[in-house]
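--- STAGE predict ---
source: upstream dedup step, 1 unique chain passed
mode: sequence only
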Amino acid sequence: MTTLANQNKYKSTQISTASSVKIIVLLYDGAINFLEQSKIKIKERDFKLKGVYLSKASRIVAELNSALDEKVDKKLVENLQSLYEFVNYQILQANLKNEIVFIDNAINILRTIKESWDKVIELQFTDKQIIAEKRDSTKMITLTV
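--- STAGE serialize ---
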């Protein structure tokens, strides 16, 4: 199996076994990665592949936007929609003008939002660890009584 095939299999497994929060983080990682790749393609003057990478990043941002649920927090959703709209505008400008500054703007916003999701995962892990420790201590008490 080729390295690319192994990477694709790994990504597929990673996605199929991930929580919804982890999938969101993976989407941010994907968008940021495609934006980074597009910067390289601008520097290499490979404008065709630049467009491909920018398009992929834009589609991910659009998917993140469409997945927002106003029932959770309407104000938060409105703020995220504004940010996603701005990110896609920056991607469009980068595609039209071949200027890396627009890509950097998009990456900075996506990284900032992603950091918040990383914290959510960290808190979920901590909560699960606390629950597991409580469960273990309960077992220990039961065994010693």
